[in-house]
């Protein structure tokens, strides 16, 4: 996983701005790991994808994840900071397949999620996901499953790929309410990418207008030199 350059950030932001979040995540990984085929990345288990996104974040922005959420009970703002290395440090092996009620299933992938993005019915989406990742699909009839059975199968699939979803255990300091908050590594990374790209474009605009330098010349400057020039312009 290589660190992205300034030009990479701008390209990723420009190309990713018009894409679905699922595709943005894969685009980011493909740019940081150019040897990986896009179709292969789409078939990665979600846990493997999330680990790659975490590694890319650490390479480009450092290992700390700092953010905030609103308490669902009292709306109080809760700020938190996480060590991304520890969050994904104990990577568990992802099962290649798991047998549930005599049927073989594989872990969910980005391609599976893409297949249900337009499905508004939660139960229908869950059934479709189960059908897509069932390796014995010829024998699969999801219409006969109860909600309890769907939940049970979903839970076993989650256990097969424990990093497919990361839940943060949070407690509100104001009202004491405790809840689990999903950590969307793809959305987190994109927020950082967008902020970096906008800052770079502001630097380019300011320094080009002041010194007449080209975009390529400005982006080739180190962070320290570009930052010092910006300080002098603002002085």
Polypeptide structure, described:
It is built from eleven helices and six strands. With 235 residues, it is of the alpha+beta class. The chain has a two-stranded antiparallel ribbon. Strands 3-4 form a two-stranded antiparallel sheet. Strands 5-6 form a two-stranded antiparallel ribbon. A hairpin with a 6-residue loop joins β1 and β2. α1 crosses α9 and α2 crosses α4. The radius of gyration is 21 Å and the shape is globular. The model has no long low-confidence stretch (mean pLDDT 90).
> What is the overall shape?
globular
> How many β-strands, per DSSP?
6
User: What's the alpha carbon Rg, rounded to whole Å?
Assistant: 21 Å
The residue ranges in which pLDDT falls below 50 over 5 or more consecutive positions are none
What does the largest sheet look like?
Answer: 2 strands, antiparallel
Roughly how much helix do the residues carry, as a percent range? Answer: 40-55%
Strand content: 5-15%
The largest sheet has its strands arranged as: 1-2
State the distance separating the first and last CA atoms.
Answer: 38 Å
